[in-house]
Each structure stands twice: as structure tokens, then as C-alpha cells.
């Protein structure tokens, strides 16, 4: 008899997302009455802005409850084209824009439509832990390239050049970065773009944290905006989860060269069809009418960034870079001599503090703290982490 549980193909052999698993575990411990502090999920604690919720309710009341094209609602695509032009200096068209149920699916469908067995995908580490699994799901090979805290965790053009082989199809670039909070500098992006153009590889720019930047000297720059040659090789992904505090709504999008957009649409047409119709209508309102809300939340994150960085960098044995974007603090805990999994398991068991081990991000000597939570939670988390580290040092 055949073994029905034997994995065939690539999709059946993936590691579950540790970010989602640890966040869910922390929530469940809390529901059981435990005094857990969770700095685990990258999920803003703000409610979705009122104007967006109202637009969704209006859309429902107006009967916007039917399928849209698999690639998304034309009116939202138009708004996204305008957004790319205004915010990112990216020239695109409605035929190149594909809307999906979450940026996670946008990233996945781009990789799936582009890559397969025999291809190599370069991923600068530390990376968001879903990328390698997505690449593995297509049968392509992950080529992780370690970046350094001393270099703002940026991939250098020299590192990229050295990692490229005749099989390299794609580079994944995340700025601002999850998990490090680093924002790529313009000169680094320009150098990377030069290599990508000369060596003819595609770039997937994940810009979901673009609005969450905190330093005037570290603005967000889209690699596709640098010149037409790199624009022709770039897929730019974005979404509503982080900017508008809409994680549960599931809405993301991308723009890709036309030839690839067509393939992505074909894939989506057989896998998800369109993202929820009334959510797409609310997305138009988010893009057009929520900028004051975005700025309010960004300012709050900026204050939290300062608070968490100041508190955690005071802890003996913990090293971190000052994040310039997103809402994560990435800390080097290698001085304690524990693997990140063990560090996090003990931290949860002994101090009831949930954070994410760096292992899944390709950095086993590190942990990730999300500061998408209240200032009082940040203070309490810092107190617990300091106590835990002090005990480890004894
Ligand atoms: N990209 C990055 C870098 C992320 O951290 C996330 C996490 N949510 C996503 C994409 C996906 O976001 P969503 O699916 O909620 O739009
Ligand atoms: N991206 C967020 C994080 O890294 C949410 C969880 C997930 O989708 O992985 O925590």
C-alpha cells in the first residue's frame, strides 16, 4: 500500500510560521489568566481608522458583495497606480497591479510565478522568516547572505555580486526591514540596482513598512524609483496591514513588469480569486483619506521606538541597533551563550515574556522584540528582560 503521508512535491514540507505560532501561544496563555507580556507579533495595537471601517460598512450596505476580477477591483488598482506615482515615484499601470488577500500572498504569488526548481533566490539575512519557506515551496533554492549589524544590516553590492550564479533569478529586499528595523540607504540601493541590471536578475522589493520610518536622515526609498532599467526588473509589494492597522482585513498588492503580472494573475485566478470585495472598497478610502491617521500612528511608533531602544540597550549583554523603521528591535543575545530558541523558551517560562527567537530569521544569536504595543507593555517587558538577563549572568 502506498504511504499516503509521504511528502511529495514541495508544498507539503514547510515549517509553520514561528511569528504567528508564538503570538497565538502568548494570546492563549493570556486567555488562561497568565500574566504574559507579548512582544511577539508584528501587529499594530491600534484599531483600524474609523473612516476605513465606515467605507467598508457603506460598501456592504451598497451590495458590493460579488466577485471582482481575480487581480482586484479596477477602482482600487487605479488608486494604487496613483499611490505608487505619488509616494514612491514608481510609474506603473492598472495592468501591472495585482491585488491579493494580504501582502504575504502578494509576495508568495510573485515568487511562485517567477521561480521553480533549478532557480536560486538570494535572501539577505536576517530575513522575514516566511521568505525561505515560500521559496522552498516553489522548489527553488534559498541562498541566504549574512548581513552585519555594523553595516546597518544592509546587503552590499559586493556581497550580492559574489552570491550571484548563472541560476540566480531573484533577490528579495525588505526596506524598512522585518526583523532588523533597518532602512536601506540610497547609495546602497543604487549599488544593488547596478548589479541587478548588469547581472540581469529580478528584485522583489517588500515595502510593507514604508510609512513607518522615524528619522529624517533615513527616508524610505523604493528601488524601482531609481531608474527605468531597475524598474523593469522589480516587483514592488505592499499592503494595508501595518500602515493602516488592518492586519485582519487581509489586503495587499504588488506591481510587476507586465509579463510577470500576467502570470501572477493566472496563478491567483486559480488559487484565491479576488480579495474580499468590500475590503477592497475600504482600501480605496484608506489610500485616499487616512493619511492623518497614518501619521498619528507613525508618531506613536516613533516614541515607542525611542523608549524600547533606550531601555533595552541599557541591559548588560544585550546589543541592538537603533531601528529606523518598521516596529521591531533586533537584539544580539549571543553573549549569554544560549541558542535563541532556548533563550526565548526560558524567557517565557521564567518571566512570562514572549519574544521571537532569531533562528527563524536566520540569526540564531538574536531575538526580535515587536514594539507595536503600549508604552506600559514596553516598560514591563524591558523590566522582565533585564531581570532574566541579570539572572543568566550570575
Ligand atoms: N512582508 C513583511 C516583511 C511582513 O513583516 C509581513 C507581516 N505581516 C508581510 C509581508 C505580510 O503582511 P500581510 O500579509 O498581513 O499583508
Ligand atoms: N509579519 C508579522 C511578523 O513578522 C506578522 C506575522 C507574520 O505574518 O509572520 O510578526
Task: Provide a quick synopsis of the model.
The protein has 394 residues and is of the alpha/beta class. The protein contains 13 helices and 13 strands.
Topology:
Blueprint: H1 18-31, E1 37-38, H2 50-61, H3 74-88, E2 97-100, H4 103-114, E3 120-125, H5 130-138, E4 141-146, H6 157-163, E5 168-174, H7 186-199, E6 202-206, H8 228-231, E7 234-239, E8 252-255, H9 258-271, H10 277-289, H11 291-313, E9 319-320, E10 328-332, H12 340-351, E11 353-354, E12 356-357, E13 366-370, H13 375-393
Parallel strand pairs: 1-11, 3-4, 3-5, 5-6, 6-7
Antiparallel strand pairs: 2-8, 7-8, 9-10, 10-13, 12-13
Residues 42, 102-104, 107, 128, 174, 178, 206, 208, 239, 241, 247, 252 line the site of 4'-deoxy-4'-aminopyridoxal-5'-phosphate.
- What is the general shape? globular
What is the count of helical runs? 13
CATH class of the largest domain: Alpha Beta
Largest sheet: 7 strands, mixed
Annotated CATH architecture of the largest domain:
3-Layer(aba) Sandwich
Could you estimate the helical fraction of the residues in percent?
40-55%
- Share in β-strands: 5-15%
**SSE string, helix = H, strand = E?**
HEHHEHEHEHEHEHEEHHHEEHEEEH
What number is the mean pLDDT? 97
CATH topology value of the largest domain: Aspartate Aminotransferase, domain 2
Structural class: alpha/beta
Structural domain count:
2
**CATH homology-level superfamily of the largest domain:** Type I PLP-dependent aspartate aminotransferase-like (Major domain)
Q: What hetero molecules are bound to the protein chains? A: 4'-deoxy-4'-aminopyridoxal-5'-phosphate, glutamic acid
What is the number of strand segments? 13
Low-confidence parts lasting 5 or more residues at pLDDT below 50?
A: none
State the separation between the terminal residues, measured CA to CA.
Answer: 57 Å
Radius of gyration: 21 Å
Amino acid at each position: 500500500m502506498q504511504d499516503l503521508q509521504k511528502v511529495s512535491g514541495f508544498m507539503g514540507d514547510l515549517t509553520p510560521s514561528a511569528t504567528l505560532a508564538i503570538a497565538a501561544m502568548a494570546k492563549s496563555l493570556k486567555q488562561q489568566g497568565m500574566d504574559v507580556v507579548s512582544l511577539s507579533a508584528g501587529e499594530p495595537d491600534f484599531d483600524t481608522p474609523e473612516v476605513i471601517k465606515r467605507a467598508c460598512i457603506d460598501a456592504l450596505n451598497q451590495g458590493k458583495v460579488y466577485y471582482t476580477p481575480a487581480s482586484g477591483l479596477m477602482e482600487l488598482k487605479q488608486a494604487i497606480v496613483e499611490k505608487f506615482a505619488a509616494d514612491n515615484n514608481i510609474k506603473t499601470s492598472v495592468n501591472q497591479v495585482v491585488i491579493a488577500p494580504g501582502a504575504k500572498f502578494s509576495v508568495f504569488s510573485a515568487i511562485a510565478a517567477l521561480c521553480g526548481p533549478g532557480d536560486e533566490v538570494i535572501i539577505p539575512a536576517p530575513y522575514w522568516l516566511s521568505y525561505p519557506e515560500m521559496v522552498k515551496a516553489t522548489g527553488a533554492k534559498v541562498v541566504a547572505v549574512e548581513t552585519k549589524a555594523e553595516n546597518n544590516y544592509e546587503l552590499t553590492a559586493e556581497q550580492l555580486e559574489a552570491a550571484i550564479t548563472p541560476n540566480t533569478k531573484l533577490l528579495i529586499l525588505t526596506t524598512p526591514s522585518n526583523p532588523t528595523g533597518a532602512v536601506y540607504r540610497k547609495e546602497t540601493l543604487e549599488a544593488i540596482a547596478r548589479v541587478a541590471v548588469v547581472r540581469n536578475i529580478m528584485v522583489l522589493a517588500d515595502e510593507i513598512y514604508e510609512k513607518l520610518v522615524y528619522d529624517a536622515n533615513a527616508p524610505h526609498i523604493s528601488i524601482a524609483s531609481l531608474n527605468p532599467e531597475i524598474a523593469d526588473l522589480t516587483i514592488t509589494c505592499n499592503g494595508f496591514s501595518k500602515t493602516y492597522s488592518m492586519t485582519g482585513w487581509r489586503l495587499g498588492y504588488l506591481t510587476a513588469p507586465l509579463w510577470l503580472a500576467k502570470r501572477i494573475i493566472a496563478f491567483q485566478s486559480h488559487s484565491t480569486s479576488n480579495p474580499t470585495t468590500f475590503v477592497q472598497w475600504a482600501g480605496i478610502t484608506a489610500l485616499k483619506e487616512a493619511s492623518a491617521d497614518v501619521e498619528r500612528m507613525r508618531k506613536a511608533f516613533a516614541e515607542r521606538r525611542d523608549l524600547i531602544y533606550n531601555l533595552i540597550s541599557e541591559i548588560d549583554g544585550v546589543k541592538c541597533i537603533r531601528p529606523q523603521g518598521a516596529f521591531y528591535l533586533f537584539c544580539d543575545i549571543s553573549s549569554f551563550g544560549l541558542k535563541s530558541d532556548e533563550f526565548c523558551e526560558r524567557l517565557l517560562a521564567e518571566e512570562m515574556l514572549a519574544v521571537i527567537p532569531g533562528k527563524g530569521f536566520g540569526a540564531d544569536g538574536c531575538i526580535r522584540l515587536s514594539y507595536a504595543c503600549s508604552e506600559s507593555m514596553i516598560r514591563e517587558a524591558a523590566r522582565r528582560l533585564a531581570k532574566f538577563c541579570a539572572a543568566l549572568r550570575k
